[in-house]
C-alpha cells in the first residue's frame, strides 16, 4: 500500500513538473515572440523611413545645410570615374568645387562643366606620386588655405596588379604614395581648418572592399585599402566636428574596372549611396546593399570559402587590369 502511495506521489510530482515546464515553455515562447515582433517592427520602421527618404528628397537633411552654404568641397583624382562623379553630385548640391589631379587640360574642362551648375571652381595640378616630402603638401595647402573648405574627398588611387615578387618596386612605391600617403597628408594639412569651422565638416575616403578581403595579385593595393579604411574610421571616434566616412565598395563601373562582374554597380549609384550614408551620420559605407551583403556574407564564412573568394577576386581584378591595358594599347 505504502509503495502504491509513493508511486502515486511521484506520478503527481512528475505531472506537476511537466505542467510547470509546459507553462515555462509557453512563457518563453511568448517572450520570444514579443521580442521578435519588437525587433521586426523596429526593422520595418527603419526600412520604411529609408524608403520615405529615398522617395522624397525634401525629407532628407540638406547637405549644404549641414556643412555650410558657399563652402568648398575638395576632391582628389578627378579625371574620370568616381572622383568626377563626386564633383558632379556635390556641385549639383551647390558646393563650390576644388579639384586636385595631374592633368590640367582635363581638369579645366571639368571645371567648365561644373560651373554649369552655378558653382565656383578651382583646380590644382599635383602628382601625388611626387609627394615625397611635407613641403609638397604644404604647397597644396597654400593654394587652398583661403577657401572655406567643408568636405574633403580622398579618391586618387593607382592600381598595379601582379605577383608581388614580379612587380616593379616603383609601382609599389607609387601605390603607397598615391593611395595611402595622399589620404593621410591631405587629411593632415586640412584637419585643423576643418575642425575650426563654425559648421560641421566631412572627410570621405574612397578605400575598397579589399580592405576586408585582402587578395592575391593585388597585395599592395589591398594593404593601402586597409590603411585608408582603418585610418579614416579610427579618426571618426575622436572628432566631434568632422564627419569621417570610409567607403569600401567592390566593383564600381569606371575605367579602372573592366570586370564582367554581374554585381558591378553604376558610379552614380555608388556616389549617391555614399553621400546618403554621410548624411545619415555613418562612418562607413559599402556604397551599395549588394556589396555590403557580399562582403558580410564572406566574412562570416569558413576561412577556406573566404580564401577561394579572395583568390577569385584577385584574379578578376588582375584580368580586368590586363584587359584595360590591352584596350588602351589598341586606342593609341
Ligand atoms: N572602380 C572600382 O571598381 C573600385 C572598386 C573599389 C574601390 N575603388 C576606389 O575608388 C576610387 C576611384 O576609383 P576609380 O575607379 O574612379 O578609378 P580611376 O578612374 O582610375 O580614378 C583614379 C583617379 O586617381 C587619379 N590619379 C592616379 N594617380 C594619380 C597621381 N599620381 N596624382 C594625382 N591623381 C592621380 C587618376 O587621375 P589620372 O587620370 O591622372 O590618372 C584618376 O582621376 C579609388 O580610390 C579606388 O580605389 C574603385
- Could you tell me the strand content as a percent range? 5-15%
The second-level CATH architecture of the largest domain is: 3-Layer(aba) Sandwich
Q: What distance separates the N and C termini? A: 107 Å
Bulk shape: elongated
Find the structural class using helix and strand composition.
Answer: alpha/beta
Count of DSSP H/I helices: 10
How big is the Rg?
A: 27 Å
Q: What is the top-level CATH class of the largest domain?
A: Alpha Beta
Q: What name does CATH use for the topology of the largest domain?
A: Rossmann fold
Major sheet details: 7 strands, parallel
Bound molecules: NADP nicotinamide-adenine-dinucleotide phosphate
**Record field, number of beta strands:** 7
Order of helices and strands: HHEHEHEHEHEHEHEHH
Q: Work out the count of structural domains.
A: 2
- What order do the strands of the largest sheet run in, or round the barrel if closed? 3-2-1-4-5-6-7
* Residues in helix, %: 55-70%
| Weakly predicted, low-confidence segments | none
CATH homologous superfamily descriptor of the largest domain: NAD(P)-binding Rossmann-like Domain
| Mean pLDDT over all positions | 92
Structure description:
- Helix content is 57%, strand content 11%.
- By secondary structure, it is an alpha/beta fold.
- The chain has 2 domains: 1-59; 64-315, Rossmann fold (3-Layer(aba) Sandwich).
- Helix 4 (104-115) links the parallel strand 2 and strand 3.
- Helix 3 crosses helix 8 (267-279), helix 5 crosses helix 6 and helix 6 (169-195) packs parallel to helix 7 (219-235).
- The mean pLDDT is 92.
- The site of NADP nicotinamide-adenine-dinucleotide phosphate (NAP) has 27 residues, from helix 3.
- GO terms for molecular function: oxidoreductase activity.
- InterPro entries: NAD(P)-bd_dom_sf, SDR_fam, VLCFA-Steroid_DH.
- Keywords: Oxidoreductase.
- This is Steroid dehydrogenase.
Amino acid at each position: 500500500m505504502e509503495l502504491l502511495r509513493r508511486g502515486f506521489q511521484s506520478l503527481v510530482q512528475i505531472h506537476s513538473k511537466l505542467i510547470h515546464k509546459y507553462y515555462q515553455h509557453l512563457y518563453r515562447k511568448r517572450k520570444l515572440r514579443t521580442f521578435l515582433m519588437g525587433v521586426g517592427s523596429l526593422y520595418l520602421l527603419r526600412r520604411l523611413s529609408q524608403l520615405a527618404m529615398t522617395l522624397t528628397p525634401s525629407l532628407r537633411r540638406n547637405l549644404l545645410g549641414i556643412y555650410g552654404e558657399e563652402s568648398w568641397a575638395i576632391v582628389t583624382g578627378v579625371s574620370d570615374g568616381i572622383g568626377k562623379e563626386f564633383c558632379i553630385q556635390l556641385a549639383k548640391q551647390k558646393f563650390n568645387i576644388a579639384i586636385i589631379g595631374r592633368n590640367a587640360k582635363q581638369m579645366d574642362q571639368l571645371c567648365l562643366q561644373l560651373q554649369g551648375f552655378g558653382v565656383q571652381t578651382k583646380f590644382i595640378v599635383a602628382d601625388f606620386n611626387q609627394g615625397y616630402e611635407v613641403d609638397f603638401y604644404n604647397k597644396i595647402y597654400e593654394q587652398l588655405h583661403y577657401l572655406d573648405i567643408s568636405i574633403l574627398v580622398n579618391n586618387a588611387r593607382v592600381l598595379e596588379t601582379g605577383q608581388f615578387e614580379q612587380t616593379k618596386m616603383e609601382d609599389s612605391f607609387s601605390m603607397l604614395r598615391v593611395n595611402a600617403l595622399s589620404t593621410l597628408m591631405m587629411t593632415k594639412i586640412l584637419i585643423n581648418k576643418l575642425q575650426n569651422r563654425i559648421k560641421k565638416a566631412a572627410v570621405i575616403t574612397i578605400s575598397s572592399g579589399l580592405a576586408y578581403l585582402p587578395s592575391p595579385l593585388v597585395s599592395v593595393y589591398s594593404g593601402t585599402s586597409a590603411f585608408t579604411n582603418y585610418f579614416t574610421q579610427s579618426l571618426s571616434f575622436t572628432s566631434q566636428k568632422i564627419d569621417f566616412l570610409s567607403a569600401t565598395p567592390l566593383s564600381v563601373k569606371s575605367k579602372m574596372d573592366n570586370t564582367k562582374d554581374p554585381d558591378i554597380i553604376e558610379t552614380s549609384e555608388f556616389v549617391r549611396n555614399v553621400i546618403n550614408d554621410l548624411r545619415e551620420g555613418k562612418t562607413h559605407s559599402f556604397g551599395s546593399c549588394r556589396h555590403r551583403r557580399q562582403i558580410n556574407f564572406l566574412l562570416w564564412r569558413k576561412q577556406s570559402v573566404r580564401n577561394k573568394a579572395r583568390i577569385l577576386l584577385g584574379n578578376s581584378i588582375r584580368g580586368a587590369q590586363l584587359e584595360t591595358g590591352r584596350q588602351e594599347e589598341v586606342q593609341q
